[in-house]
């Protein structure tokens, strides 16, 4: 086992009373003194500050942003060439079987693309990008000198505007270079909680100062990975390695919205990404299973791995929970998972087997909470 | 009051033993969101899984500390699982059990020994 890495905010987490746990090769705060439940609720009511510096921040450089975008489209089935300057978009790397290698955020920063990938996939993503992009004259560079903070919640705009009012002009999925605490920060108006908010890439030597200035505000509390997970689950957002992986296709994963028409059959830049034949065929034929929201009827949480059945007794499983737990904002257990397509319609009554008992669960629309993005 | 290595507390009340989890255990578990209690009248053996508690983080089992019969359960807990965090060593007891021989409790730790155990 390699030694765990630390983010530039490590000592601050410890000082704030965080419980540190290993996560994707890093020592990360799972919760602070408030605890998961209160941290979750605080983020939905005011603002939460998350350290997501473990994620991979990558600059893609080349001759022009057009050339870089075109190259990246060979790995990602998303309209990147049509991504306007200072805008960001969600995407994923696909494989030849049509599965998802990782999901990522892609920003057009004028003369280059800036992408953020999952911590656990960094090494593999870099290899994938080098192999796929370098022959096309595009160089990926994993940044080792910047931290990444997420500030999420209804009070996030006021909290960040106190440092630089320019951020008020940003809309959902805008990106901008903004000076905070005298440092050049790359900000996007996005996040992974279902709330309005920002992700802030900050030079590592300024990260602690920025975090302290934000935390000094009444509305801002530090939030750990525990609440980050329940927030994204309530928002219906996928966790890579759980809800999506190398064996799930974008159609199965209900992520077809992320593949714009221009990349689909009949589009001007149709296909041209790994697994295109399989994925585009699935748009027409449909997939045999689908990622759905699940609402257990009782109080017992249905966690990852719980098998889903169509009947209360007998029969083979028709699905499986991939993320599940208690939703602090919904006040109920919530889950998501894959079920056979015949059982995927919202309102379908199914059963989840928990400790040997089949408990009623209903297929539900996601998100479980209303998203409050500032569009 | 006696304590088990599974972080349960045991309190003698007449000829019954009242069972709950310690403040230390409740803190470690985090916010409790689900409690499943055994049936009143059920006969249990030592180390049977009799209670399921789930926190925001994970599920855990509470084991029967002794052989005996579950004579009463704290049913309101199922509707208000957060009481386990609010008052683990008071209001949030799980069940009362009848055991053959109360001297079986002597094998468990007293408060001083438990404090040492949790460091």
UniProtKB/TrEMBL annotation, chain A:
GO cellular component, one term: glycine cleavage complex
Superkingdom assignment: Bacteria
Record GO terms (molecular function): aminomethyltransferase activity; transaminase activity
InterPro entries the UniProt entry points to: GcvT, GcvT/YgfZ/DmdA, GcvT/YgfZ_C, GcvT_C, GCVT_N, TrmE/GcvT-like
GCVT N-terminal domain segment(s): 9-261
Entry annotated with the keyword Transferase: yes
Reactions mediated catalytically: N(6)-[(R)-S(8)-aminomethyldihydrolipoyl]-L-lysyl-[protein] + (6S)-5,6,7,8-tetrahydrofolate = N(6)-[(R)-dihydrolipoyl]-L-lysyl-[protein] + (6R)-5,10-methylene-5,6,7,8-tetrahydrofolate + NH4(+)
Enzyme class: transferase
Alphabetical list of SUPFAM superfamilies matching this protein: Aminomethyltransferase beta-barrel domain, Folate-binding domain
Aminomethyltransferase C-terminal domain sequence ranges: 289-369
Transferase as UniProt keyword: yes
Gene3D superfamilies attached to this UniProt entry: Aminomethyltransferase beta-barrel domains, Aminomethyltransferase fragment, Probable tRNA modification gtpase trme, domain 1
Protein residues bound to substrate: 199
A Pfam match: GCV_T
EC number(s) from the headed UniProt entry: 2.1.2.10
A biological process from GO: glycine catabolic process
Keyword line: Aminotransferase, Transferase
Homology family: Belongs to the GcvT family.
Name of the protein: aminomethyltransferase
Organism this protein belongs to: Alloyangia mangrovi
Gene name per UniProt: gcvT
Automatic annotation (TrEMBL), chain B:
Record's keyword terms, sorted: Lipoyl
N6-lipoyllysine carried by residues: 57
Lipoyl-binding domain mapped to chain residues: 16-98
Top-rank taxon: Bacteria
Cellular compartments per GO CC: cytosol; glycine cleavage complex
Cofactor(s) needed by this chain: (R)-lipoate
Record InterPro entries: 2-oxoA_DH_lipoyl-BS, Biotin_lipoyl, GCV_H, GCV_H/Fam206, GCV_H_sub, Single_hybrid_motif
Record's keyword annotation contains Secreted: no
BP GO terms, sorted: glycine decarboxylation via glycine cleavage system; protein lipoylation
CDD domains xrefs: GCS_H
Cofactor binding note of this UniProt entry: Binds 1 lipoyl cofactor covalently.
Assembly information from the UniProt record: The glycine cleavage system is composed of four proteins: P, T, L and H.
NCBIfam families documented for this protein: gcvH (TIGR00527), PRK01202.1 (NF002270)
Family indicated by similarity: Belongs to the GcvH family.
Protein task: The glycine cleavage system catalyzes the degradation of glycine. The H protein shuttles the methylamine group of glycine from the P protein to the T protein.
PANTHER family tied to this protein: GLYCINE CLEAVAGE SYSTEM H PROTEIN (PTHR11715), GLYCINE CLEAVAGE SYSTEM H PROTEIN-RELATED (PTHR11715:SF3)
Name the UniProt record assigns to this protein: Glycine cleavage system H protein
Organism of provenance: Alloyangia mangrovi
Underlying gene: gcvH
């Amino acid at each position: 086992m390699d030694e765990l890495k630390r983010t530039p905010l490590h000592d601050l987490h410890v000082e704030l009373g965080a419980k540190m746990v290993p996560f994707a090769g890093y020592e990360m705060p799972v919760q602070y003194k408030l605890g998961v439940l209160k941290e979750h609720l605080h983020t939905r009511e005011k603002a939460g500050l998350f350290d997501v510096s473990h994620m991979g921040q990558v600059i893609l450089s080349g001759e022009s942003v057009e050339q870089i975008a075109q190259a990246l489209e060979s790995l990602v089935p998303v309209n990147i060439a049509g991504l306007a300057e200072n805008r960001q978009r969600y995407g994923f790397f696909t494989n030849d079987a049509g599965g998802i290698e990782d999901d990522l955020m892609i920003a057009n920063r004028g003369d280059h693309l800036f992408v953020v990938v999952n911590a656990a996939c960094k090494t593999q993503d870099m290899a994938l990008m080098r192999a796929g992009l370098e022959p096309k004259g595009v160089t990926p560079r994993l940044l080792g000198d910047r931290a990444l903070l997420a500030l999420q919640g209804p009070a996030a705009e006021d909290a960040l505007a106190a440092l630089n009012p320019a951020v008020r002009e940003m809309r959902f999925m805008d990106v901008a270079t903004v000076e905070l605490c005298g440092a050049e920060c790359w900000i996007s108006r996005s996040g992974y909680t279902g709330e309005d908010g920002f992700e802030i890439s900050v030079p590592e030597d300024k990260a602690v100062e920025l975090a302290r200035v934000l935390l000094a505000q009444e509305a801002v509390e530090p939030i750990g990975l525990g609440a980050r997970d329940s927030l994204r689950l309530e928002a219906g957002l996928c966790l890579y390695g759980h809800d999506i992986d190398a064996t799930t296709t974008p159609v199965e994963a209900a992520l077809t919205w992320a593949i714009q028409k221009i990349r689909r059959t009949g589009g001007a830049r149709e296909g041209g990404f790994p697994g295109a034949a399989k994925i585009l065929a699935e748009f027409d034929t449909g997939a045999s299973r689908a990622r759905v929201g699940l609402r257990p009827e009782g109080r017992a949480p249905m966690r990852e791995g719980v098998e889903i059945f169509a009947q209360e007794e007998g029969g083979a499983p028709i699905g499986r929970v991939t993320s599940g737990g208690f939703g602090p904002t919904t006040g109920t257990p919530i889950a998501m998972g894959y079920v056979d397509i015949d059982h995927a319609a919202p309102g379908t009554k199914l059963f989840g087997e928990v400790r040997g008992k089949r408990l009623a669960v209903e297929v539900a629309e996601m998100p479980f909470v209303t998203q409050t993005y500032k569009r | 009051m006696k304590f088990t290595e599974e972080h349960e507390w045991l309190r003698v009340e007449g000829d019954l033993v009242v069972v709950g989890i310690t403040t230390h255990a409740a803190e470690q578990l985090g916010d409790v969101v689900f409690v499943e209690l055994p049936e009143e009248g059920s006969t249990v053996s030592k180390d049977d899984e009799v209670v399921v508690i789930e926190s925001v983080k994970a599920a855990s089992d509470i084991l029967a500390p002794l052989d005996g019969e579950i004579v009463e359960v704290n049913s309101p807990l199922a509707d208000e699982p957060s009481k386990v965090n609010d008052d683990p060593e008071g209001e949030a007891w799980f069940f009362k059990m009848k055991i053959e021989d109360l001297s079986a409790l002597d094998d468990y730790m007293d408060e001083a020994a438990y404090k040492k155990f949790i460091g």
